[in-house]
Amino acid sequence: MASEAEGWILTATGRAPTNIAVIKYWGKRDEGLILPVNDSISVTLDPDHLSATTTVAVSPTFDRDRMWLNGQEISVSGDRFQNCLREIRKLARDVEDVDKGVLIRKEDWQKLHVHIASYNNFPTAAGLASSAAGFACLVFTLAKLMNVDQDHGKLSSIARQGSGSACRSLYGGFVKWAMGDDASGSDSIAVPLAPESHWNDLVIIIAVVSAKQKETSSTSGMRDSVETSPLLQYRAQTVVPHRVQKMEEAIRSRDFASFAMLTCSDSNQFHAVCLDTSPPIFYMNDTSHRIISLVERWNKAEGIPQVAYTFDAGPNAVLISQNRNTAGLLLRQLLFCFPPPPDSELSSYVIGDKSILGEAGVQSMNDIKALPPPFLNKDGSPCQKIAGEISYFICTNLGSGPKLLDQNQSLISPSSGLPK
Ligand code: DP6
């Protein structure tokens, strides 16, 4: 390590998106390396609405690795974090900052410590998967700081060791996590299927469900499913390989009807595997089931799918519409059935890309009160209105992969090396 300036600090700041699986990853064949039992496919969400931003800093004055998440210091001793750090340090190369008079040699990275500050631009209480964006961002930004010269496929295999679904957040648009078959995990990587521009009229509405029961984490839930669910074996070996092929075709040809049918079927089968687990795992609740019924009835009434639904390890619904027009109609129906509590503001009930409200013809709370019932139940009654079941809706689009941000967006002070 050669340096003219004593207490120098170098930083890099990156941003990485979240993703939502349309063919789910559920079950590991190797717990340590995080190798899945089947391929999965996801869509990357717009980082303006759902992403992690991370600054990593290095300095000879740091005496240990430290991390802050949303302003709170958290432990870095976990295996997953340590595995990511170790793997990325192995790939580190020489770094020179001529302005600061700093030269870090490849081998110096083994001794130098890092400070990491990360924050999510969406509420953590929302129960939306934050580990995917978080680990993808950590690995991507460390790779930039350490001048790692590897493609995103290699970086995805490192992010995978932080959290399986994180590997898919290394790319924008449509992404496949190929399960691979090598015991080392070297071929268990994310592969881009198509960029977001390939099918950019899709609109995503996330219904963040208010009542949360204590949830089983994905990690322990899928471990129990692997150990006890016969349906999981059948799904991984027989159903998913065929479905992945069909999904790739649907994406390639922008065939929304097939895309929607496959997405809904796969979400339902994942939750069926959860029910088939002993003891059974319930991630969805009554509100989730009401949303499924609403979408199923609408799709049936139209004769062709208008919207796809998918649910991860929690009750929140992720609804994918074919275009802005259908997204507007969907939002109208959702606002009729799940109106905001009377004292709330529309601007905090529908967040993200609020322009969809224009498509829905809703500009005020009064417009919501005046909405006509979307359709009738089988018995001829309108959909029951229940306020308070949904905390808020996030409207968003498909998005791009990780990006390096400017120094002025750094979360770490360049003088103290601590979060700003
Ligand atoms: C239901 O990636 O959170 O969201 O690998 O144990 O960290 P670990 O699990 P995680 O599981 C995600 C499960 C899922 C489906 C998916 O994203 O494919």
Bound molecules: ligand DP6
As residue ranges, the low-confidence spans are none
Q: Strand order of the main beta sheet, please?
A: 9-8-12-7-2-20
Radius of gyration: 22 Å
CATH domain topology of the largest domain: Ribosomal Protein S5, domain 2
On the 0 to 100 scale, the average pLDDT is 93
The domain count comes to: 2
CATH arch. level architecture of the largest domain: 2-Layer Sandwich
Per DSSP, what share of the residues sits in E-state strands of 2 or more residues?
15-25%
Question: What's the structural blueprint in terms of helices and strands?
Answer:
Blueprint: E1 2-3, E2 10-17, E3 19-23, E4 28-30, E5 35-36, E6 40-44, E7 51-59, E8 66-69, E9 72-74, H1 79-90, E10 95-97, E11 102-104, E12 113-120, H2 131-145, H3 152-159, E13 174-177, E14 190-194, E15 203-209, H4 218-228, H5 230-252, H6 256-275, H7 286-302, E16 307-310, E17 317-321, H8 324-337, H9 346-349, E18 350-352, H10 355-360, H11 365-369, E19 390-397, E20 403-404
Parallel strand pairs: 8-12, 18-19
Antiparallel strand pairs: 1-11, 2-7, 2-20, 3-6, 4-5, 6-13, 7-12, 8-9, 10-11, 13-14, 15-17, 15-19, 16-17
Helix pairs in contact: 1-2, 2-3, 5-6
This protein binds ligand DP6.
